Amino acid sequence: MLSFLYVALGSAVGGVARWSIGNWVQRLAGGVPPAVLPVGTLVVNASGSFVLGALAVVIARPDAGARVDVARLLLGVGFCGGYTTFSTFSLDTIALLETRGWLLALVNVVASIGAGLVGVAAGMLLGRAAMGRLA
């Protein structure tokens, strides 16, 4: 039960951080609208991937201690997951690259991005249909 609390707390903080940092970076970009260039999203995705990569190495150490699971749930699953799931996708892709080779890593990248784009397009189509406008 405590595991759920760690994930929930980390996710809440990560979500607020994503919103705050994304907006702040977008303003720093001179007010360029995200529809023109989503700089805030790019920075959040890159920084979240960096944080999860660092955590993965630290948490994987054999001498990391008993608090590893708490750190993994609170920071890795919770914070990074709430901040950006792109970090998890990036870590999974690097893990595939290191253990299974470039072909499966490439399949993961193409399939994930393709499925994400198709999912958004289908969701938008359904949402528009539900709102009574298919345009």
Q: What is the averaged pLDDT score?
A: 89
Helix count from the secondary structure assignment: 5
| Helix proportion range | over 70%
Q: Give the class from helix and strand content and strand pairing.
A: mainly alpha
> How many domains make up the coordinates?
2
Helix and strand pattern: HHHHH
Q: How far apart, in Å, are the first and last alpha carbons? A: 46 Å
Largest sheet: none
Number of strands: 0
Supply Rg: 18 Å
Low-confidence stretches: none
Strand content: under 5%
Tell the overall outline.
globular
Task: Write up what this structure looks like.
- The termini are far apart.
- The chain is globular.
- The chain has 5 helices and no strands.
- The chain is mainly alpha-helical and 135 residues long.
- The longest helix has 29 residues, at 102-130.
Properties at a glance:
globular; single chain; mainly alpha
Describe the structure in brief:
This protein has 135 residues and is mostly helical.
Layout: helices, strands, pairs:
Blueprint: H1 2-28, H2 39-59, H3 68-83, H4 86-99, H5 102-130
